[in-house]
Amino acid sequence: MTDPQIVLTERVQQALAHAFGPEHADADPLIRPSQFADFQANVAMSLAKRLRRAPREVAEAIEGALSDFPGTVEVSGPGFLNITLDDSWIESEARRMLADPRLGVGSTAPSQTVVIDYSAPNAAKEMHVGHLRTTIVGDSLARLHEHLGNTVIRQNHLGDWGTPFGMLIEHLLDIGEGAAVEQLEAGMGTEFYQAARVKFENDEGFKQRARVRVTTLQSGDPDTMRLWHVFMDATVRYFNKIYELLGVTLTDADIAGESMYNPMLQKTCDDLEASGTAVVSDGALCVFPPGFTGSDDKPLPLIVRKSDGGYGYASTDMAAIRYRVHDLKADRILYVVGSDQALHFRMVFAAARVAGWLPDTVSAEHVQIGMMLGKDGRRFKTRSGESIKLVDLLQEAVDRATAAISDRGYDEATKSEIARAVGMGAVKYADLSVSHDSEYVFDFDRMLAFTGNTGPYMQYATARIRSIFRRAGIETSDAKGPILLGDPAERALALHLLGFGSLVEQVAEQSEPHRLCAFLYETASLLSTFYEQCPVLRPDVPPETRVSRLALCALTTAVLETGLDLLGVPVPERM
Ligand code: ARG
């Protein structure tokens, strides 16, 4: 482990045990970055209280007990320990990290099976930009867990079942299969739905047909099932177009939509009722998980079967959670879904615990996704008020990126490749760089800016390093060091990079890709100071300095590229 904060924590803990007894070996030394040194340990203050001794005296005792310590320590003020790492330690750790293909990122031990439920657009309702964010955040979590050696099972819980399909299928028959498929593949799902809805509300005959169609669909009538497939296949082809454009790793094999659980729902309900987990209340079958009450202080029901015998969203999620634990053997289930569904998931998890379907050894977590807002601070819509077609939105990002790089003299093919990477990278990075549960303002100008915490800025940082290597005429893999820290800018950059491995592990553990963005942004900023202070290829740079700086550049780009890859942000060779 190269992360200085972790190394120092271990060393100070050893000193604590040595100076005050083994019962202190697990105390948190409270090591934090400091403005007066590299780090500061504040443990002496809290420990002094417990030992009834002067903090300064405690700090001095810790200092005296430190051994095998990779830096110098100074007791300051009332009892702070200011820690400055030795340059030689940073140099050798950085070089070791450069030689490590995993860049100090460990593997989860033992490896876990992580089920990640993400994207999950609805075929029969408006597909909105909110799904863009669950798709992007979920995909990054999938990449992170795979990188840590976990078994990732992606589950695209499509909204592909339910009563609206009666009217959708009837509308499909009215306009003809060919025309319907064409519309759906083009991303006109919302328009298709709205047209069906208008007829359903104004045309008694149509409404009647739609109702009958729901029944034939539920009964599995082959002809109706075929029409359902025609509808869904065309819709999924549109979703796939978007996934491909975005470089999202979801495939058809990951589809596990609501329809998949339909055959399980009756047994799900029967089992819940038989075990006494669910009871009939006002004709509906309900679970009343402990701790949930409505505004009237009455227990809040999770309705698993409605009073008309129909099933709903909660029924499906109860079947799904059992399937994920029992059949998929999940150790951890992540639901990357809008924060407006927080209560639903808390109740589903609690109900599954009561039913014994979610043992304590399995964690179920709702990774809440905050709402997408327009620049006006309201729910994201077009000017005329309709929701925005995802494919148009993504195309606009690519068009704007094309305009931004149009003066750089690339041929058409290169230009369109870069524009796509920059456009998609900008949209994805913007979604990821804000903590996933906060609301997020969709703003093309900001996300496409070439400065600040943006995708294009990170891509630009890597492209800059690549161009140094092109000019040097060597591959990054040829740069092996040794790394020598002369300038403070080199030192700051190297020290920061050492924290990469443990940061990636924390980001996956806590489902917080925005912290990886922040780390990469800090990397790019330190890199840019390094560029200002430290020439690499200038003829007057001594050979050993050049070797060292190239190695530091190679390490930086390895971190940036690995980090961006874990976020799912593409890295163009040039920009
Ligand atoms: N289709 C749902 C929606 O758009 C999201 C499904 C999330 N996953 C789940 N297991 N409920 O709101």
TrEMBL record:
It comes from the Bacteria. The keyword Secreted does not apply. Pfam families: Arg_tRNA_synt_N, DALR_1, tRNA-synt_1d. It catalyses: tRNA(Arg) + L-arginine + ATP = L-arginyl-tRNA(Arg) + AMP + diphosphate. Residues 6-85 form the Arginyl tRNA synthetase N-terminal domain. Its EC number is 6.1.1.19. Monomer. HAMAP family: Arg_tRNA_synth (MF_00123). This is Arginine--tRNA ligase.
